[in-house]
Write a structure and sequence with these properties.
Elements lengths: L6 H18 L2 H6 L8 E3 L6 E2 L1 H13 L3 E14 L2 E13 L12 E15 L2 E11 L5 H12 L10
Parallel strand pairs: 1-6
Antiparallel strand pairs: 1-2, 3-4, 4-5, 5-6
Protein name: DUF4440 domain-containing protein
Organism: Streptomyces tsukubensis
Length: 164
């Protein structure tokens, strides 16, 4: 964390408030963290771009209504501030669970997901507000995938030499 009271720390605090509002399912707090303008935008992993405050906030209401549990562990956080605008990038290590599959269970199975995000904030008289959120899934390869790709690149019977 940076020196207390710096713009960078203020942006980090606004970002933390955003993810905490999601974790707690607090739509009112989440709504208050976005700019009160139609120029906002959001891209959730696998979704098309959403533009306008109404469309963006509807998407969060939908996500909150269909997510029983969600927790974010943020890593690789970087912040750049210039002329009243801040760009924060991070890795969202997400743990989530849906509704229980059977009555009596408290929560469905937990699922982990790795997402990279860019959050753009603008300074306002009420503090830093979200202008844009863009999140994309991280598609990682396992060692087995890497070995299979190497085998496929070599081709059948390829000994690395030139054809006879």
């Amino acid at each position: 964390m940076t020196t207390p009271g710096t713009e960078t720390e203020e942006v980090e605090l606004a970002n933390t408030a955003f993810y905490e509002a999601m974790e707690h399912g607090d739509f009112d707090v989440l709504s208050g963290l976005w700019l009160d303008e139609e120029g906002v935008s959001c891209v959730h992993p696998g979704w098309p771009v959403l533009t306008g405050r109404g469309e963006v906030l509807r998407s969060y209401a939908l996500i909150m209504a269909n997510t029983e549990y969600i927790q974010f562990f943020l890593t690789d956080v970087t912040v750049e501030v210039s002329a009243g605008t801040a760009v924060l990038t991070c890795t969202e290590n997400i743990l989530s669970g849906g509704p229980a599959p059977e009555e009596g269970d408290e929560l469905g199975p937990l699922v982990g997901q790795l997402v990279v995000a860019t959050n753009v904030f603008r300074r306002t008289s009420d503090g830093w507000k979200l202008w844009s959120h863009h999140a994309s899934p991280v598609l990682t390869e396992t060692e087995a995938d890497d070995e299979q790709a190497e085998d496929e690149d070599a081709g059948p019977g390829d000994s690395g030499g030139s054809p006879a």
